[in-house]
Amino acid sequence: MADKKKLLLLDGSSLAFRSFYGLLDLNRFKNQNGLHTNALFAFNRILERLFQTEEPTHMLVAFDAGKTTFRTEFYDEYKGGRQTMPSELAEQWPYFKVLIEAMGSKTYELPNFEADDIIGTYARQAEKEGFEVVIITGDKDLTQLATDQTRVDITVKGVSDLKAYTPESIREEMGIEPLQIIDLKGLMGDSSDNYPGVRKVGEKTALKLIKEYGSVENLYEQIDSMKKSKMKENLVADKENAFLSKRLATIDLDTPVEMELNQLTLAERDAEKLVSFYREMNFNSFLNDLDHTEDDRSDSFEEIVYEAVETITEDHFSNEMALYVEMLEDNYHYGKIVAISWGDEKHLYTGKAEVVLQSDEFKNWAEDQSKKKSVYDAKRTIAMLHYAGIELKGVTFDMLLASYIINTNDSGRDIAAVAQEYQYTDVSFDETVYGKGAKIAVPEDNAILFEHLARKVQAILKLKTQLITELEKNNQYDLYFEMELPLAMVLAEMEITGIKVEPEQLEKMKVEFSKRLEEMEQQIYEEAGEEFNVNSPKQLSVILFEKMGLTPIKKTKTGYSTAVDVLEKLSVTVPIAQMILDYRQLAKLQSTYVEGLLKYIKPETGKVHTRYIQTLTQTGRLSSTDPNLQNIPIRMEEGRKIRQAFVPEKEGWKIFASDYSQIELRVLAHISGDEHMKEAFIEGQDIHTSTAMRVFGIENPKEVDGNIRRQAKAVNFGIVYGISDYGLSQNLGITRKQAKEFIDRYFEKYPGIQAFMERIVEEAKEKGFVETLFHRRRYLPDIKSSNFNLRSFAERTAINSPIQGSAADIIKVAMIRMQKAIKEKNLQAKMLLQVHDELIFECPEEEVAILEELVPQIMENAVDLTVPLLVDSNYGDSWYDAK
DNA sequence: TGGTTCACG
DNA sequence: ACGTACGTGAACCAC
């Protein structure tokens, strides 16, 4: 212990505000209950850094007690006109004290006084006792407290940078003594604290005057001898203000604080409180750091008993167990199983992959439908074991899927992160065991690996009941057990089946494209008058907006935009814009689709195997990755040709595709109950034509021309997205006023839709979430935000999510029934892909007729709505031809 | 690693 | 007055 005593004084109120605005990422920093945590996160970082750099022996965090202080008693405008605290910060306020006290420091506030006064008082007391004092604040006024024993650190930008003020540095920078800061303030006033000073006197003039006269008092004593000037007149006129302002700026060094200095001794961190606080706030990185700083991390774990198996017997299995298969790679179609663990309440077993996968006993158990298995990520587990020659059956619970249904933010691969959401911490993060980045590896010591896996299995066992209870509470039992869990098995099968892609097609395109790209590149260089990287938006914007002197149309965060809409506008003036558009289109096809796809073709089978991510989107849709097969080009003919490479696996087979027609608008018609929109669908009208007729007052459908229909279509889309006049105007290239008129007319003609929008936003505000037809939830904490943008976004999301999500629910039901029907009818057909509103199959030619009946029948009847669902089907020799 | 652009529904 | 359409993934650049 250092014999030198050091007191750290923090201006809690000021730092809390700085923390909030310095890390204003409200979307990212939210805990599971929707509480914003950005300021707490930033504040924690400040605290941790201060402990490291300052190593204080004593500490206090002072807060302002309230609006009225002794200063407002003699100047009631003091700090008037300040904005009220944003609600997103207010909700975090109570937790600052929890955090600070868990860190071992005291907090303090005193009615009638500000944090400054408390800090000033303790600083002076401590100086007398020979302490070294450090003050941390965002408020420059406190520099008046700087002495040889007291340093004042002011936050520069945000909270990461601090600037130290000592008497010397103040002298050097401003040419005055710390205490003269008060006189300075007296003359110049303070706009943020809302007191005036002397008119027309800013920092520069005030500094000059203080250097000359020393203090406000001195200045006025000698004012008669001052030369006649406008400034002198002002000084005389505002004399009262000057003294008032000086008084306001003076920190009270004698506040009646109740704690003795020795009570401010910094205590040990309260690890238990800190852990539960971090857990509540979902601060996983801090939790992790906390783990690392513990001398013996495993001490914080409960003991665990498991058996490392070398020889596997039937005794190792029971009727109901949890199972975890470990693989470090993300892509389970290509990775290698490391080890496997399984167990029940009584026994936990773990073994290396070589041992377990060779065992007939394990295979028999895994493939036995009647032996129930709980897992973490069923689809992944099924796929991994499939490639090891084992067809896993009897999966009755998936922890990852369950936690995603309860909270769509739980999508991670790491079981520890999800477990932590449910206050279970008896399992390590993968990162702590395997490392990260390039150094990721299985630990050399088998015992470490085995224990880690055994703990994962135990986590699944321990959390199962809790998760199921939560699902029941949310009315999501069926969504989980009847939809998502069965779907996981369906998706596993689709992924494993894969789809055949002919490399010859793509190779041909690759050669052609690269030749054309080179030509286009040369032409662009000629237009530009120099060579540059056409793929670099930054270099391109230099060419366009600096060298060629074109007028920028749109800005991005980092510079001028060169996106499609901008280049389209520029193409009227300069030919290079169109060339770049053409180049980009082709370059995209080449790099993402031609070359990109080629990399994913498995040489042995000629197939690509995407992975559907079932636990990612906020709406319930699937996503597809490695490769993404949900965004293969279709809109432009040139890109559409990529689909010619997607072919059936077997000779003489066909690609068969069925897609829902207008599913989102039909869902909207159903959940809004709008009579007119329902009628249009029930009578089988073209919805966009029908909208055009109603909104533009056209009687005869034949009079609806292409352009009018296009506009009506854009409005319909806008409605689904939670329309705004601005968005619609951008999309249609019309004025905001016109767009607003469209929308108003629309709501007039479809009053049920407007009522639905108002209702759903209201509901979101009440409950904090919105729901799909099948009770899939999306939480919207920003719906009550004081920030216009965040709130507006949440409102649009409240409208869109039930629509997009219900459509996602419907196709998921159809997929499960389709897979079942194929098996029951013993068809050879295989379901290959899902692209949000369409399903793609391959089948022998003779089954085409069956699918033409069966697929629409199942898709259209997946759910019973108040409007019909309609499905279109097509088939051909390739995906391209199934149109 | 974040920003920009662009492919899809 | 505010500054947006909803949901994704991949390639590339620049730091």
Can you put this structure into words, describing what you see?
It contains 36 helices and 23 strands. The protein is α/β, with parallel strands linked by helices. The chain folds into five domains: 208 residues, 5'-nuclease (Rossmann fold, 3-Layer(aba) Sandwich); 72 residues, 5' to 3' exonuclease, C-terminal subdomain (DNA polymerase, domain 1), CATH 1.10.150.20; 192 residues, Nucleotidyltransferase, domain 5, CATH 3.30.420.10; 104 residues, Up-down Bundle (Taq DNA Polymerase, Chain T, domain 4), CATH 1.20.1060; 138 residues, 5' to 3' exonuclease, C-terminal subdomain (DNA polymerase, domain 1, Orthogonal Bundle), CATH 1.10.150.20. The strands form six sheets. It has a six-stranded mixed β-sheet. Helix 17 packs parallel to helix 22. The protein is globular, with a radius of gyration of 34 Å. The structure holds a DNA duplex (9 and 15 nucleotides).
Write the SSE topology.
Elements: E1 6-11, H1 12-22, H2 38-54, E2 58-62, H3 70-74, H4 87-90, H5 93-102, E3 106-108, H6 115-128, E4 132-137, E5 150-155, E6 162-165, H7 167-174, H8 180-188, H9 203-213, H10 216-221, H11 230-237, H12 239-249, H13 271-281, H14 284-293, E7 307-308, E8 320-327, E9 337-343, E10 348-352, H15 353-358, H16 360-367, E11 372-375, H17 378-387, E12 395-398, H18 399-406, H19 415-421, H20 430-434, H21 446-473, H22 477-497, E13 499-501, H23 503-528, H24 537-547, H25 564-570, H26 575-598, E14 607-608, E15 611-613, E16 623-625, H27 637-640, E17 646-647, E18 653-660, H28 663-672, H29 675-682, H30 687-696, H31 706-721, H32 725-732, H33 736-749, H34 751-767, E19 769-771, E20 777-779, H35 788-824, E21 830-834, E22 838-844, H36 848-860, E23 871-876
Parallel strand pairs: 1-2, 1-4, 2-3, 4-5, 7-10, 8-11, 11-12
Antiparallel strand pairs: 5-6, 8-9, 9-10, 13-14, 13-17, 15-16, 18-22, 18-23, 19-20, 21-22
The protein binds a DNA duplex (9 and 15 nucleotides) through helix 24, helix 26, strand 16, helix 31 and helix 32.
Protein name: DNA polymerase I
GO molecular function: 3'-5' exonuclease activity; 5'-3' exonuclease activity; DNA binding; DNA-directed DNA polymerase activity
Domain 3'-5' exonuclease: 305-472
